[in-house]
């Protein structure tokens, strides 16, 4: 155990984590130069296309320092705020962390957020100043920021470049010398923490774990404490670039187990693995349950694919434990699932993975957040869907989730950012200068205001220089209403939304105008209305296409034309009645 080091890499998005991980693998000869490629640990096509890390990746490296051999277990983590749950799971399996800071961009919001997460878990922090070779790098200035943040000495900061390989040997030496060896009892009963899992269509569920006490051997009879399921360890091993089977994985090390598990519900991230015959006394304290920030409905395009979609979601949940879902039904869309996500990017990635990895074509409804509703009789319940909104006559009050937003930007963009946040019902609570031209702004604002386009607008008004991070702070009372969209007087439940009363008219007007563009003209008039209860607040009309039935009347009495027009009028009335059921088929396309 004294020769094992478990560490992860944490940083803000696009600060060079994956590139630096490539150099560590190259300099430890874990991967040959023939097999080396950019972002070698990012094995999803989606990760390579977008240039971001979505999933944490564990890999073991062998390193020799001063004639002594060491085992280094590296976990590369995502940087985007939507994947912070992946970071927390990785940190739980480590004793140290490389904190990567871009020498050109300096400390940003997610840098601070991930650092606090690591400090809460008592990890040893090794600060690394990356991208030192860039012409725009300001190493001395950024070193001052790191010293102020960590309280470390300047000589403890390692200058490096993931692109050129500068400083990589210094980083490896620092990992060996500064990161403590794992603490555990090799002779105690087996106790291993599951920190990740993946699904393999041929071999079932593969669980990744860190052995805290004892050891696990091939063909051992083991059980998962939380689910109380017992299995035989058909194959165990360590995580190189490919899985390498071994006979034993001892205390302090990281490995995988394949035991033929087919049911996704029987493996839970944060669970403890132990022996059936000689179990450990106490299970490992698991991770906190994930708290979804954004809710949306996911429905199959073909309702016959409902069960297949359920199986796909369960398998995807193994790879991404932050995904939460439960069944629901919609009048317009049929049977589907109400899903909880950590953010808009997370929702987009899940939809993309369902289509790519499981060949499922799905429809996603308008995203929203959860609310607390208090009734006049003292009852209380949580609202995830606008259709669950109670009658206003029965409602005492409604509370919505608030967040504390942290924005770090250049001082020249303060005015534009404050204006943006205030229009999103935000309240500034703190403003502090990190350097002469970099400022940190803290706001309290409703979560519902940032789930749509806040991040895009923030990048626009700051010309891409602002970094953004947030965490929930609780619920506050708010004046919210349910906005319904009606087609010819009939509400479309999939287009309903809970929104603040002050923004209801603007939002309803936009939806009506957009639907007017999308809906094709029929031979009858279509009324598109936005309503709060029985009150119509916005309306657009798709005009009817009208056939000129009087074209053949080239002469004669006016009564002939009137007779034809009256006949057409009766026909259009019947057509409008028939057209109501046609809308139920059209809604699928609208949503």
Give an overview in words.
The chain has 591 residues and is α+β, with helices and mostly antiparallel strands. The protein folds into five domains: 4-178, P-loop containing nucleotide triphosphate hydrolases (Rossmann fold, 3-Layer(aba) Sandwich); 191-275, Elongation Factor Tu (Ef-tu), domain 3 (Beta Barrel); 294-367, Elongation Factor G (Translational Gtpase), domain 3 (Alpha-Beta Plaits), CATH 3.30.70; 372-477, Alpha-Beta Plaits (2-Layer Sandwich), CATH 3.30.70.240; 480-591, Elongation factor 4, C-terminal domain (Alpha-Beta Plaits). Helix content is 27%, strand content 34%. It has twelve helices and 31 strands. The strands form six sheets. Strands 11-10-16-7-8-15-12-13 form an eight-stranded antiparallel β-sheet, with helices on one face. Strands 2-3-1-4-5-6 form a six-stranded mixed β-sheet, sandwiched between helices. Strand 7 (191-200) and strand 8 form a beta hairpin. The longest helix is centred in the C-terminal third of the chain and has 33 residues, at 558-590. The chain is globular.
Main attributes?
alpha+beta, Elongation Factor Tu (Ef-tu), domain 3, Alpha-Beta Plaits, 5 domains, 12 helices, 34% strand, globular, disordered C terminus
Short description:
With 591 residues, this protein is an alpha+beta fold.
Topology:
Layout: E1 4-11, H1 17-27, H2 45-50, E2 57-65, E3 68-76, H3 84-91, E4 96-102, H4 109-120, E5 124-130, H5 139-150, E6 158-159, H6 168-178, E7 191-200, E8 204-213, E9 215-217, E10 221-224, E11 229-232, E12 235-239, E13 243-246, E14 248-250, E15 254-258, E16 272-275, E17 294-300, H7 306-319, E18 324-330, E19 334-341, H8 344-357, E20 362-364, E21 371-375, E22 380-383, E23 395-410, H9 414-423, E24 427-433, E25 438-446, H10 454-461, E26 467-477, E27 480-487, E28 490-491, E29 497-500, H11 501-518, E30 526-532, E31 535-542, H12 558-590
Parallel strand pairs: 1-3, 1-4, 4-5, 5-6
Antiparallel strand pairs: 2-3, 7-8, 7-16, 8-15, 9-14, 10-11, 10-16, 12-13, 12-15, 17-19, 17-20, 18-19, 21-22, 21-23, 23-25, 23-26, 24-25, 27-28, 27-29, 27-30, 30-31
